[in-house]
Automatic annotation (TrEMBL):
One of its GO terms (biological process) is methylation. This is Class I SAM-dependent methyltransferase. Keywords: Methyltransferase, Transferase. GO terms for molecular function: 2-polyprenyl-6-hydroxyphenol methylase activity; 3-demethylubiquinol 3-O-methyltransferase activity. CDD domains: AdoMet_MTases. It holds the Pfam family Methyltransf_23.
């Protein structure tokens, strides 16, 4: 395999190994080159296409319309949020595991970077949070969704606000320069403020086994995928402490990768129809096991700003 020019965006090593990948989600088949760092095992797209928008079709999930709750549902969601933080055993919403760990106060200033339509922030608003800001340069315009919930059509680095908590849910890997992203978050966090980054991870067992067929390589949309080693090094260099790494991978890593092995695009219909209910259950069990063993394909990085 050829040694590639350039340097690792996580650890700066110039020992990069190239491999070829193909756009598979939409079935376009466009070829691109990824580089994997020999030092830290992080992944990066070698050359970022001029126009990435052709790889983000209109129906891309994050541009679906926001679903609002009626006043009864808002009332119930507020009760549920309080129960969640009080440790009452209730059916939990999908975001409960990381939110409980972060345990923000209801008046904390919270940013969601790469917020898409703002649905997650809306759920937090419905649950009682009062100072919510979404950032996404790809939304159509600035939008006041509700009192205390604003979406901004810009990067967080262009904001002059300071936050108690900044989160990124599967947005980090779509950004070309991880060091600049972490710098911008550092500058926009109060000292001691928290940063949550949920992202795929290059240490994934599925990537090791299946290489470019790994569904979360997602060529060429995923521009950088850190390893634990590379991410920790970069985050600590940029003034963060990495408090915890939690694996939260799902059956999707096996199902999506299996579709690519069968040379099928990643559609909801294929995910639904290509597998039996029994297979889906087995995949989910395997995902939980992988998470326990620290070899799942995505993580939550819990960070805090030092000083
Ligand atoms: Zn590296």
């Amino acid at each position: 395999m050829p040694i590639s020019p350039g340097s690792c965006k996580f650890c700066n090593s110039s020992h990069l190994i190239e491999f070829t990948a193909f756009e598979r989600m939409l079935g376009l088949g466009d070829e691109c080159t990824y580089q994997q760092c020999e030092q830290c095992a992080s992944l990066q797209l070698k050359e970022i296409p001029q126009d990435l928008s052709t790889y983000y079709p209109k129906e891309y999930y994050s541009f679906e319309p926001l679903v609002r709750s009626n006043s009864l549902h808002i009332f119930l969601k507020k009760l549920r949020m309080r129960a969640l933080f009080a440790g009452v055993p209730i059916p939990e919403p999908p975001y409960a595991y990381w939110l409980k760990k972060l345990h923000p106060r209801f008046d904390d200033k919270i940013a969601d970077v790469g917020c898409g339509n703002g649905q997650l922030l809306y759920e937090l608003y419905a649950g009682g949070f009062k100072d919510l800001h979404g950032f996404d340069p790809f939304i159509s315009r600035d939008q006041q969704i509700a009192s205390g919930l604003q979406l901004w059509k810009k990067e967080i680095g262009q904001s002059s606000e300071t936050f108690d908590l900044i989160m990124m849910h599967h947005a980090f890997e779509h950004m070309a320069n991880p060091r600049e992203v972490l710098k911008a978050c550092f500058e926009r966090l109060r000292p001691g403020g928290k940063l949550l980054i949920r992202t795929p991870i290059a240490d994934a067992a599925v990537f090791k086994a299946e290489k470019e067929l790994w569904v979360q390589l997602d060529a060429p949309r995923h521009l950088v995928i850190g390893s634990q080693k590379g991410f920790r090094l970069l985050a600590e260099t940029e003034g963060f402490s990495l408090d915890e790494i939690e694996f939260d991978s799902e059956a999707f890593q096996f199902m999506g990768t299996e579709l690519y092995q069968r040379n099928l695009p990643l559609t909801q219909a294929n995910l639904a129809n290509e597998f039996t209910e029994g297979e889906k259950e087995e995949f989910q069990k395997k995902a939980l096991q992988y998470n326990l063993e620290g070899k799942g394909d995505q993580v939550c990085f819990y960070l805090s700003r030092r000083d």
